């Protein structure tokens, strides 16, 4: 028993395992390309120390919180909500006591990896080791080597994208660019707050959007112009991509007159029930048209029913583990957008799903035909050994490897970045090895593909340059 | 070739198989916990001998009947319906002649297991062996060792739940409790006949419901009170759970006034088309609220389109193998119930699906967040090697092991009980062994989990006490 | 590295691989039964030489074209559309340059197989080998041994069905029957052009349908009579089956009066929006009723959203790789048809899906109950190693092997016929071998099943006679 076995995630068959090992050896230490994620820009801009293990591993990690809550933990005992405990050691002990709940889950793999690789801790977390591990992590966190920028460098990250509101002034990104640290942190244009009429404070957001850009956001054309300007600003700050989190994959392609009327109904408060969805749908097509012009790569993360529990949302806010996937229809949903710009070779639209039944049925056929489309890696609940295997098994035969874009760690947990890339690289090597030993791929081709899956395809799809 | 290989269902890789074998050795003979099933309470209450092999293995087994019918057998030749043959040997020969149809299906595995373990028959059933096997089974059935209670004891069953109508007087359960046999047979409260307006005789059922309970079931509050009283009665008879078979997972949370109006429309015969579904939806939430109070564990079996063939239903009745699964939406369907009581730690709601696309997309994320939710084992068509593997592969990474509840045999075929638990235990050991050899789980953890999956989680989730 | 490894697609575990090898040895050279496909009847009727490698492998193969287009190739560069290049060598080079895109896809396996087995080419296609391979193929194509009928004989085909419009005069089939070649080419009745109101030229097609048959297709009964007559004609030409390509699996069972009214609305141009779908639905049931009488086996290929890109359809026509699958509901969709004739033992209805989530949830339960139903093999995007494995894993436990119908190559690429059967046979042997080594099937049973899956079940289900 070791906390991290060198052959983890490799196939048990000796011949296949041997191929997987040899493939992995060529990419194990390749630079990390992280074109989509949710790290806090303040980490990079301010580079302050993390306070303690509970702040780093438990409180903000919605994977961890939801599992503990699902087995009876109170949010307050995890430091969340009013009347929450402020005793960080107590939070950590609560977590350690329940560590067995994570058996067989990716959180376990990520945290074990971080304990070993980031903090040099080799024993499994348990009630018995909780205090010692807590103290050792906290001690490390006080040293300069454990500040965000130092971790970025230690992790071998080549480039890392944050996800930023269209209303953000990107001052943390300015700070990174103005200092002498050489890390490459780029923003991503995420306009949900001004694109989704159901977003909290939508109308106020439109006012700010106008004020920020000097555009008249009371008019449809002025509103679009505001997007153009913000996109240009993000691009000037290094952004290569936009990101869109929508409840469905529905798109629309209205006439300008209809789109303008729709917009007026929304901002004047006389929207019809179907208008919010129609507006989101129309805006995906507008964003795709802009991407054709300004070259920002477009990402669509569709199908999450956010804040499924009204109670949890009300008491504890967003991102507490209560976003639940729903069925998603890409074939019909994307048709208006694809008929408008899907054959335009200037566009790259990367699709993400939480509905795995769409991999083989919809996404791979779509990406295997339209030149604008690429498949994002397994997202969220599917960012795991079995999830990655299902993705490769269900998407590859129709879309091939070259219509996929490598890995996204997509995380707000800093120490999980190398862990997640490690898992993805191992899973890809395992899959390639199985193709080789079942003679579906020649070995030289597997060695050609491994570094592409580990970084090359991401660099190219996200237009990040390099190598 | 042996009828039951000691390594059946274990992975072929030698190292993985070795782990699976060692895990299985620790649980092979563990007591059987059977918290959900459809054995006939009369078996336990009256303890009469079964008449013959055809009555035991063919006529009542809808898995067997549907397969034979799908390949051209007439119901009459299987002893079903008017004008059915009464020649039991002829039925058995018909079955034996078609035994090859079951290759690769769980029915084959269950029947082979029963032939070997219950009747000591070691050769494969075939036209050549049909008569001899028929005679040997029938001879055994005449002896006391093959009566239901003796089989229960021989099978090592610790507790077994039946499924009983809300209108049942549970007299067979009384008989079990009043005799000196020590078997533990508990009822389960299944109120479909008084909850589903589309159920045959719904209005008459409500009258009987009122008469049984002394409640005025012409009023909404009286109707609810009748449920309270029947639930208390079932609980007094040992029940720890309720069970709900609904065509969808739709729930509702109406105001009392709206619920009362809905109920009045239904009993007065002026229901709207959507009212039956709305009433079923509302009743799930009512049942969940009652479970919070009286502690009965709630089970939801959703998504079966019952009696798909009108002809078969008309001529041959229910449960003839013509219930067909449909797509099921848990994320949106359960939301009203979960918003009402989903965060209540007193509630346990166990979810079952026939739509495997919901495992990873909906059920595991829901059960991995809400403290009230647990995932039932693979149900019905999925109660099989591949079905169990898909369940573990698709649910574990998001829900973990501890949000699942072990195995249900869910059967009306007595001799298949040990067979089904044997299959489930082997499949779980195979899955755990794969986690161990791919270093996703440490071996000591697998040995910790195996007995939980084989019984411990069921005891806890169903509040059965013991160990 | 060899272009075709003798153990390709077999499981890596040595014991399992050994079983797979021995099973495959018994069927590797079995005659090819091809009861459904899209080869051009002119090939068989005229037996002309193919002009060159690009015409044979690239231009008409929508699998190849869509992948190249998805990665930026212009249709014109592939010889498609107005202004297309006519330089066949340039097209071939374009293809060879992009051959890496097909890594891990079935196209790669099929083309490699054809290069080796049909043309004796042993090196992998690449930019370096492109010209040489092009020249060698073209040289072969000029010789008599590479004409269609000679290839049919060389491939060991026992019978091959084409798919033919209800309006076709089958003159190529006449030509085959009138010559002294002994190949068995049979037509299939595909009436989409006169059954689908959304088909191009539907009303004109009905006129031709009337003219061809001497029936009054302005009346519902005359229209049905025209089908009866065309079906009889196809049957006289050797057809044993019909085929129906519908966007959904919806069926209907209207009264004759309602059906007649519906038909009148459609041909008089006052159809309601739901009428086209309702008419297609009704016609499936009508076709099933006719099949009960005339014995033609019915095939339903449901769930393809044809011509998803309006632009591609307008500029380049049908079958360019832009048909995208959609979710399909068989349980509710087929119910009217099945309630009408589903229990009729004279009917065989073979179901195909592009929605794999229906395998275990809907198709296997339906085919495992209704005597009229059989499951077609994995279709289109799923006609591949992983696709076939998922089909067997998801369908077998509920439907068994005997409710499936063996393999369809379903191709318009002549040289891929033996390649596709080779893949299917290997996948089936791999699956059987896994059942054997996990002791879910005895070895003698696997040897019994292998030839059935390789041809026997197809002969029987499609009523092709022989053996």
UniProtKB/TrEMBL annotation, chains A, B, C:
Q: What class of enzyme is it?
A: isomerase
What's in the keyword line of the UniProt record? Answer: Isomerase
Pfam families per the record? UxaC
InterPro entries given for it? Answer: Uronate_isomerase (IPR003766)
Which GO-annotated molecular functions does the record name? glucuronate isomerase activity
Name the EC number(s).
5.3.1.12
Q: Which NCBIfam families match?
A: PRK02925.1
The protein's name is: Glucuronate isomerase
List the taxonomic lineage. Bacteria, Pseudomonadati, Pseudomonadota, Alphaproteobacteria, Rhodobacterales
Name the gene for this chain.
uxaC
